[in-house]
Amino acid sequence: MGTASRSTPSPRRASSQPCFRCCSRGTPSPDRHREGKRTMVVHTPHGRVQGLEHRGYREFLGIPYAAAPYPRHAFDPPRPLAPWSGVFEATAPGATAAHPPVARELFPDPVIEGPNPLNLNVYAPSNADGHSPVLVWLHGGGFFSGGNASPWYTGESFARNGIVVVVPNYRLAAEGFMLLDDGIANRALLDIILALEWVRDDIEAFGGDPGNVTVAGQSAGATATLALSGCPGARGLFHRLAAMSAGTPLLSSLDRTRMLSEEFAARLGTRRTVAALTGTSVHKRLELETAWLPKEVQAPPADVDDRARGVRRNSLRWQPTLDGTVVTASPSDALTAGSLDALLIGTTVEEWNFMLGQTAPAPSLDACLQGFANLGLTGQDLTDYLRAMATDNPGHALAQALTDRTFRMPARELADGAAKAGIPTYTYQFAWPAPVFGAAHCADLPFVFDHLDAPGVAGLLGPGAPAQLATALHGALVRFVREGSPGWSPYDTEARAVRVFDVEVREVVDAVGLLPDRLRAACGSNGRARGALCDTPPPPRSLSVRGSGGSSRRERVP
């Protein structure tokens, strides 16, 4: 971690005026209000924090967990925060990490300027007593957008179910991941680790148990969640992981990150040093991040992961790096060590529907055929694949192939490794076919947070999203955070139990688990499709499907 001197929060957010004193659990103040809502104060090791009292839960917004990185420390490791005097007002969202506005129509993603985006939100049960389990949620956004100010990440539903929720910001894009000549990569992961240290030191003041911490995330947040398993600095700071829709590759190589960093610095017209980059304007860096198309996406890709990643312009550029310093092991190797209390992992069944659906114009037939070829599907393999999918829409078929290759199969491989290492592992698939994009990437988020009425949700899901499905998926994560089990059978490599969240929530026990039938059909006579798309298919067998009501039926696996 950083060794720079400690810093106090920005005066804009702190007050030196005397405030109603209360116990460390946050007794509500009877005579203070904020926009008609009751306020209350908690005493933390860093100082007093004022939040809002709602019916059944308490909300604290924008609490700093590190010293402000702007304007002089945007490319430095995070610096510890000194205790403050007075009362910190945590009644409005804090600053967000610098990023361009992306897809605001569907994903509300406020950009809030300020010197310290390294802040976090806390949602706590009103009756939390220091023993409530803690959920730390890492937001998605491709590591170039997103933040805790989005209304999609408010944690009141979890808090009303007895869980203390912490939603930190972390630095994005070049500020978070660029490799410097005189610095390090993975500053964003160091941000997250420092936020976890804040949880260890301060969360008891909000009623949370620092000995019962689950880290969860979706998309890029899930990738960061899994990366933490290979970070020595994060050991002992969390106990369970929940990874939702983590794409592949999960980590960048040091050589690739260096190549991207050199190209970014050259396009920015500066040297790859802390001082030189700090001297550039945030506005100029954001302009480049928005317009930049890395050479690796333009050039013929070297392997199937690069091919899958290069299908669309806005593929991941920056991501965690296996640098040997901050990250010393891949998630698969780290999970094999078996040092985790429990793992929950899964995907939606049509992740790429949204991403290809956002492409204009829609992929042509030739483009789709080239996409299949890039994934190793040609000739009879492609014919078998399309026949197994039962679709005459090549764009949809390509989206499914990409979903299988870049999301579902990596999830299965990680689940296999964790289960073999003796980690209690639970897998799921989100399969509800929303009328707009189907069971696409991010379609599960409003169900996870039980926020079907949040801004933008109707644009992604359409009208009439089933409330009972939100109850089921949200409840599964609540139970996992509380007990270490989401409420269905553990996954193992003999009988792979997968919970399917659809109109009917059911458990599928299938020896091939997350590996889709259509990928098995694409396997050649040697059991593997070109491009290493799938493992050797097992012989035909039965699978058992258990409905949420307890009924069961037997189905034949092709």
TrEMBL record:
Pfam families: COesterase (PF00135). Residues 1-38, 528-558 are annotated as: Disordered. Its EC number is 3.1.1.-. PROSITE patterns: CARBOXYLESTERASE_B_1. Gene3D superfamilies: alpha/beta hydrolase. The keyword Cytoplasm does not apply. Residues 40-487 form the Carboxylesterase type B domain. Keywords: Hydrolase. GO terms for molecular function: hydrolase activity. Residues 1-16 have a biased composition (Low complexity). Belongs to the type-B carboxylesterase/lipase family. This is Carboxylic ester hydrolase.
